[in-house]
Write the structure tokens for this entry.
Amino acid sequence: MQNEDTEKYWSRFSETYDQNQEYVVGKDFIKEIGKELSKLPKLGKTVELGCGTGVYTELILPKTTQLVATDLSNELLILARKRLRNNPKVTIQNENCRATSFAPDAFDNAFMANLIHVVENPVQVLEECHRILKKGGVLIIVTYTNIGMRLLDKFKLGFRFLKVWGKPPKHTHIFSPEKLAALMERAGFVIQESKLIGNRSKAVFVVGKKG
């Protein structure tokens, strides 16, 4: 998908984006991810790639000193601004996660929630995170997966997904903690934590440090 096609794909769901997520994976699971994020140490100046409507921006914000939340879809960014109500700690702007406008070594931390599994070239995005992070900076990734789910739960998840999102992008990836960690290592990160979280719904949670 080209940038324009990707933006159109996600922007068409702007009015139902949050409800769709809650329907597919469950509201309680999103809260569970929030609890996992709350265990993170204090974060400094942080960039979020693929912030969508700001669901996870809101959850990680208390950990940061400053947060730049970005997305390719202007329609989703409008909703993120409404959600965050001009919080002085947050800057919201349009960026392409594969090639941002940020200078090298610009951030202490980078964060992605449910982005890496729907980008065409995950390594390119990880390398971009490596570029814009300071030495010793930390990349935090959480992304939905069906790895580790029971077969029946996989079928139910797939049905709910198709019902609200339709056919997924052809380049959608299914990550295990090991597979995502290996890609992050390829991009220059040293893995600090790598695990599955969740019960019926699952997500991969990986933390890597720029050497």
Notes: The chain has a mean pLDDT of 93.
